[in-house]
Amino acid sequence: MKEYNFEYTKQGIAYALFFASFAIIAISSIALGRLMSNYVLLDIIFPIIIGVVFFLLNKQRIKKTGKASLSDKEAVIELSDTETLSFDTLKYYYSYNGKNGIVFTLGLSDGTKFKMSANNNFCDVKPLQLFLTDLESAIESYNTQSQAGIVHLTSILARKNAVYILLILTILIIAGYIYTKMPLMCIPIGFTLPVIINWIQYFQLRAANKLVDF
After folding, report:
1. Which helix (H) or strand (E) holds 92?
2. Which residues, 6+ apart, have CB-to-CB distance to 156 below 8 Å?
3. CB 93 within 8 A of CB 150
């Protein structure tokens, strides 16, 4: 079995740090607004500085190291736990290599998922990209030889239930515009364009009849 070493992102920690930083900005802004109501500019700048410093001091928690081994029938991936992923249990796989890094998902026949990502703001993504390239090649080779029917999902939005996630995100963004003020309103503002783009991609996939049921 061929072996690989790579860096990856603990996505849960990344989200927690982002939201904690925004929460610190919001709370600091409210507190300073009451203490220094005549200094509006300082009420905005200082909370942002505090939130950014908090994030920078903790961002090393986001990056982790992992390793994997690969054969023509399975992949053994060691992150915080060791996962043995046999290709005969795969239902679909999805990979995305964008401007912020790599996202990869394996969907198993029992309904569970294995997800992994590497954000290039925190990780060297090239070793993981090498592993995933070889993994996809091994899956496709197995799929062809065994006629396993493993689906290569070209977009996470190609799933029919993606519309419900988009609806929830849209409602949250609208609520954010209605019920928040600056600087907390930066959160819904930041998510608006990505959600609009996702809606466009979803309707394009639906028009092309590329949506799947799982």
Report:
1. strand 90-98
2. 94, 96, 103, 105, 162
3. yes
Interval 56-66: pLDDT, tens: 777 777 888 89
| Locus of tokens 């500019």 | 41
> What gap in Å lies between CA 4 and CA 125, rounded to an integer?
13
Q: Which of 161, 163, 185 is nearest to 173 (CA)?
A: 185
Residues 78-128: tens digit of each pLDDT: 988 888 999 999 988 888 887 888 988 898 888 888 988 888 888 889 999
pTM of the predicted structure, to 2 decimals: 0.67
SS3 90: strand
Distance CA 60, CA 122 (A): 8
- CA 49 distance to own-chain centroid: 26
CA-closest candidate to residue 138, choices 127, 124, 148? 148
Burial 50-78 (b: 16+ CB within 10 A, else e): bbeebbeeeeeebbbebebebeeebbbbe
